[in-house]
Each structure stands twice: as C-alpha cells, then as structure tokens.
Design goal:
about 350 residues, mainly alpha, two-stranded antiparallel ribbon, 13 helices, 4 strands, about 60% helix
Length: about 350
C-alpha cells in the first residue's frame, strides 16, 4: 500500500472537516449539529488524535465544542444526542475545562434521573421523534453507556461504571441470540419480542465496538465485565462465520442477498483488531479475518476521503425488507467508525 494508514486517516478527516451539511439529501453527513452521527465521528477523531498526537486535531475538537456549547438553541435530550458528550468527557479529562464539566454533569443528571426507563431499569431508546416505549436498542450501548463509563473514570465515580455495566448486561440478555451469538437490533418489553428478529450488521457492530471500548475505558475485570467479554466472544465467533468473501458484512448479517455494508465492517474490524491487541482473541485465528475486512473498508474510501457503501440512519424494522431498503450514502458515523479502525491499524505500522 503506497499510503500509510495515517495518511489515509488524514484524507478521511479532511473530507469530514468539509462536511457542512449543505446537501439536504444527506443530513447524516454534516458536523454542524449535536447528533449521533456527529458524536460517533467526534469520538473517532479523538481516538485519531490520541494515536497521532497531532495538536491540530485537538484544536479542531475544542473549536467544535466551543461553537456548539455557546449556541443559543441547545439540543433536544434523547439517546442519540448523548453521543457527543462522550468526546466532551474525553476532552475534559485532558483539559480540565470547567465549562465542559458543567455540561457533562447536566447530561449525567438527565441520563440518571430523567431519561425514560424500561422494565428492569433498562435505558429506553428514546429519540427526538419517538420515546420508543419499553424498547431496548443495540445502538444505546455506544450512544449512552460509553459516556457513563468514561464519566465514571474522569470524575472518579465508580457507580457510573456500575450503571454502564448493568446496561450492557441488560442488552445482552434481551438482544443476543444464545444459539447464534449474534445480536438482534431491538427488544420490546411491551410486546415481548425482537421486532423483525433482524441481525442488523451495524447494530452488531455497536456491541463489537462498545464492549472492547468499555473495558479499555474502565480497565476493570469485574464479574460484569467478564460476562460482557464472554458475550462478545460468542458474537465474534459468529461474525467470523458470516464474513463475505469480499471482506465486508451484509447489512443483514445472515441474509446473503442484502447489500454489503462498510460502516458495520469498519466497527467490527476495530473490535476484532483491538480484541487481538488486548489478548481477547488468538491472533493466529483472527488475523486473516481482520486483514480481509480492513482492506475491504479501505477499498471503499474514495479520492476525496469519503467512506462509501454506508447504510443511512436505520430505525427499528418490523420486517427484514426494511433494512434492505435503507439508502447507501457517505455519513459522519461511517467516517467515524473508519477512524476507529484506522487507529488500530496505525498501531501496527
């Protein structure tokens, strides 16, 4: 490969810096809002900064938050809008900016005291459009639980880590199929079913990413973390069986006729590469899978830095066709998940 992984990351980041959201057909490719696609991208950018040490990336992040935190209109509070607070907490840990802390504590208060809950105190996947009564979604693990864990470390509040671990166990109990090891997109306590019983690829990727990230953030070998790790190992073994010959995963993992999807593959590859580095996975068994998948993602990056082959925002589906009909377009979270993958690849250069 002629380019280093850092050069590829720079190209992908440069593209995202110019994603101003002026294209009304693609509201998920913008950095000009406080939403979940932006939140995923910000975390990918921060992890790239951690790896490269480039002060220009840190300045970009601080500038983004300085702009957003001083806007007159503040974001609606829901699961998805918690996502940007994860990187804000990372920045607070590094800068000790008291203004950041004020916002972090405000969001923590909302999550812990005001956010809707399901039966057994699960985090209900409320969004700006719908409270999604009694519903658990795999997305919540990345969007909310990693923030709780990071805040627990940054603020020395172990009870926040306990809450994050509990939510992981709740989602594993109701979303992971104990036979296949794969994760369903969602669960409803109201009707007590898994909706379309879809093994949605990006939903699975949220867990593949979030479980290793939870451990890396907290460095805890608690009983809960040990259970989360076993669920993760079951899932990764299942994913190994379903990877396509082109290295990508289908947007419905077990439905061959559904299209290949890049963002899920990038997230899964990040989790696997990190799992190998943490010693969770045997290198000799999973290195070929990782090599095939990472190259497949790199092949989806065009000359502008856009990550192609990414499925658009995906609500809960009541049938499998719902997932196969989702548009394919570059998105901020597609860029962010690719950043995450690239950070692990940069460690191997």
């Amino acid at each position: 490969m002629s380019e280093s992984y850092k050069q590829i990351a720079d190209r992908v980041l440069n593209m995202l810096r110019h994603a101003d959201g002026n294209d009304p057909s693609n509201g998920h490719l913008t950095m000009d809002n406080w939403e979940w696609p932006t939140g995923v991208a910000l975390y990918g950018i921060y992890k790239t900064y951690q790896q490269s040490g480039d002060p220009a990336i840190l300045d970009y992040l601080k500038g983004w938050y300085d702009d957003m935190l001083h806007r007159e209109t503040q974001p609606h509070r829901n699961v998805n809008t918690v996502a940007p607070v994860l990187t804000l907490t990372c920045l607070y840990e590094e800068t000790k900016n008291p203004e950041y802390l004020e916002h972090i504590e405000s969001w923590l208060n909302w999550v812990l005291k005001e956010m809707p809950r399901t039966d057994y105190d699960g985090l209900q996947h409320c969004t700006v459009w719908n409270r999604h009564y009694q519903q658990l979604w795999a997305d919540t693990l990345f969007m909310v639980c990693l923030f709780l864990a990071k805040a627990g470390v940054a603020l020395n509040r172990p009870e926040l880590i306990d809450e994050a671990e509990y939510q992981f166990l709740m989602h594993i109990r109701y979303l992971q199929n104990k036979v296949t090891g794969l994760f369903y997109h969602g669960w409803t306590f109201d009707r007590r079913h898994n909706f379309a019983e879809a093994y949605w690829a990006r939903g699975n990727a949220w867990f593949t990413v979030a479980a290793v990230e939870l451990y890396d953030i907290t460095k805890r070998d608690s009983a809960a973390m040990r259970m989360i790790k076993t669920a993760w190992l079951d899932q990764v073994l299942a994913l190994w069986k379903y990877q396509r010959v082109n290295g990508l995963f289908s947007t419905l993992i077990n439905v061959e006729e559904s299209y290949s999807e890049t963002s899920a593959t990038a997230g899964i590859m990040y989790g696997i590469l990190k799992g190998i580095r943490l010693g969770w996975l045997p290198r000799e068994q999973y290195s070929a899978m990782a090599a095939l998948g990472t190259q497949a993602v790199l092949d989806q990056i065009d000359e502008t830095g856009a990550v192609n082959g990414v499925s658009g925002g995906t609500g809960m589906g009541h049938n499998l066709q719902h997932y196969m009909d989702i548009i394919v377009t570059p998105t901020a979270y597609g860029q962010g998940l690719t950043f995450l993958m690239l950070t692990e690849m940069m460690l191997r250069e």
